[in-house]
Amino acid sequence: MKLKLICIIVLTGFISSFVVDEMVELVYPSYFPSPAYNFSNNQLTKSKIELGRALFYDPILSKDNSISCASCHSPFNAFAHTDHDLSHGIDDQKGTRNAPALFNLAWQSSFMWDGAINHLDMQALAPIAHPKEMNETIENVVKKLQTTSLYPDLFKDACGDSKITGSKILKALSQFQLTLVSANSKYDQMKMGEIEFSEQEKNGYQLFQKNCNSCHTEPLFSSFEFANNGLSVDTTLNDFGKFTITKIVSDSLLFKIPSLRNLSFSYPYMHDGRFKKLNDVLKHYTQLDHKNKLLTKPLQNPIELTSNEKTDLIAFLLTLDDQSFVFDKKHRFPRNILLQNTNKN
């Protein structure tokens, strides 16, 4: 199944002076749940998506103009980062967590590994302000963008006037990220009745449904809730997850459950990137200390897998790779916008 964006042309104004913009409807499979994002407050349009795409790839969002969103969220890694276990920011500083993959964000209502942000329109503020990531303020970003020859025109096309505000920046970034829908993997093609799994993949699917589906719920392959999965505390980072935000003891070591889609492209795994291979992940889950009363309830029952069953389970997990999403050119660096502007200046 190939996803297509349905476009509706909307004309506003008068014949002598009117703006033409294309309203864009998010399209997703019928077996997906309804999105959590409220599009009535930020209706997708072609020009705003392109504005958000330019901002996503532009290092002007960082204090020293060296780090963009894409520096940690590469399209070729399902918008994650495979070169480092932890994110890297300005002055080559190391962040405190692994950069999560970005896709199917319209179905999520909390963000960051600890759930510190509860709305996609606010999420970009966290990396922009983080001293070890972009170390910038949204107010200064506005000033920098306003003085360029590029962005006042882009904002005028997208928003009707050239005035740049923090709200417009954040909503444009949301627009681009909302279009990052991953739903064309082999699993999706199986769900649509277009292909059949191999016997090994079928066996792996059954093992997944038995052992993993309660937390990594189909078809998004995450419940997007928070759980203690038995990881020991990294003694260097001392990261206690959601507790860092809420200061509630019961939230200690709770981390957001990531989607299992596109695992071939989004390693290393876990909030601190401690595991490089899927075999390492499975080893962790089959060797849990079940006396640990803080374990999330589904993991309190032992997961027992033979070596062959581990191989079958991984075979199924690989059916969640969506190459058409990862290599989709419409999500990549907007050369026609950013490079042309650089050459012009």
Structure characterization notes:
The protein has 14 helices and four strands. The chain has a two-stranded antiparallel ribbon. It is globular. With 345 residues, it is mostly helical. It has two domains: 6-181, Orthogonal Bundle (Cytochrome Bc1 Complex, Chain D, domain 2); 186-323, Cytochrome c-like domain (Cytochrome Bc1 Complex, Chain D, domain 2). The relative contact order is 0.15.
Strand/helix succession: EEHHHHHHHHHEHEHHHH
CATH architecture of the largest domain: Orthogonal Bundle
**Uncertain ranges:** 1-19
Spatial strand sequence of the major β-sheet: 1-2
Radius of gyration over C-alpha positions, nearest whole angstrom: 21 Å
Total beta-strand segments:
4
| Biggest beta sheet summary | 2 strands, antiparallel
* Strand residue percentage: 5-15%
The portion of residues assigned to helices is 25-40%
CATH class of the largest domain: Mainly Alpha
Question: CATH superfamily of the largest domain, called what?
Answer: Cytochrome c-like domain
Helix tally? 14
